[in-house]
Write a structure and sequence with these properties.
47% of the residues lie in helices and 16% in strands. By secondary structure, the chain is of the alpha/beta class. It has 2 domains: 197 residues, 2-enoyl-CoA Hydratase, Chain A, domain 1, CATH 3.90.226; 47 residues, Lyase 2-enoyl-coa Hydratase, Chain  A, domain 2, CATH 1.10.12. The longest helix has 17 residues. It is globular, with a radius of gyration of 19 Å. The chain starts with 5 loop residues before the first strand and ends in a 10-residue tail after the last helix. The protein binds ligand T3D. Ligand T3D binds next to helix 2, helix 3 and strand 6.
Length: 262
Amino acid sequence: MDNRFILRSADAGVLTLTMNRPEVLNSCNRGMVTELRQAFEGAGADATVRAVLLTGAGRAFCAGQDLAEAAPPPGKPVPDIGDIVVGYNGLILAIRRLEKPVVAAVNGVAAGAGANIALAADFVIASAEASFIQAFVKIGLIPDNGGTFFLPRLVGLARATSLAMLGGKVAAQQAKDWGMIHDVAPAEALMETAGRFARQLAGQPTRALGLIKRAFNASLGSDLEAQLALEARLQREAGRTSDHTEGVRAFQEKRAPSFTGR
Ligand code: T3D
């Protein structure tokens, strides 16, 4: 598949996607959002992919919506913002529905949609120099890309409200201290650290990881009874995988398991 706005590479079960519009801090135009969505959807159907790593080219992760596209100069047609957001929704759902772990390696500023695309990942590892900005309010908008869903769940309502209403910058270490992200790495070691982490995930029992993700997705809007029933159903599925058989056998044989993702 030809991509204009993202780079793709694959190694050791990890598909790396790099947002590649560094001259505008990887801000998202429609083409980039479509390419990202298609890449995440394709990763679900590709058995060789067992984890996805998402990052940005240059000094930023992603500065959110390309404001030149959303607010073109006088005389050019002005797009409907709701339509733009619907496009992002497909991407966020593709990330959350992908039953494989997604790691965001946040290499610099993540603003607006860029911040919330990162937060849709299963793990966020940020450069110590990175920051997260719910920039929407500064241009009279509300957090989208799942921001109003993920933020209160990750950091609590009080912090989510101040992030969304004040639009302040959260440094990577602060984000980690608040439980918003998984980890922080020195800037020069970010890609090595995140790549190693993603390869480690790619060696795990992929089906189980995918079912964990499905269960957690459901738990965000579920009650205990429904969640217990879901766990029973998903555990039945996990119990039928070769990786479960291998995990138990490896335990009994006192050796490290070798998971295949099946
Ligand atoms: O349609 C809709 O709007 C609905 C969808 C909404 C989703 C959203 O994401 S809304 C939020 C959109 N994003 C923003 O408001 C962030 C805008 N950018 C910034 O506030 C700053 O650029 C940053 C804080 C992210 C970084 O600041 P700094 O000082 O490190 O860099 P800079 O100088 O501002 O930017 C460097 C270049 O990137 C610059 O271009 P130039 O002057 O060198 O030619 C700047 O214009 C460009 N750039 C940065 N962000 C965007 C952008 N170009 C287009 N769109 C951007 N979002």
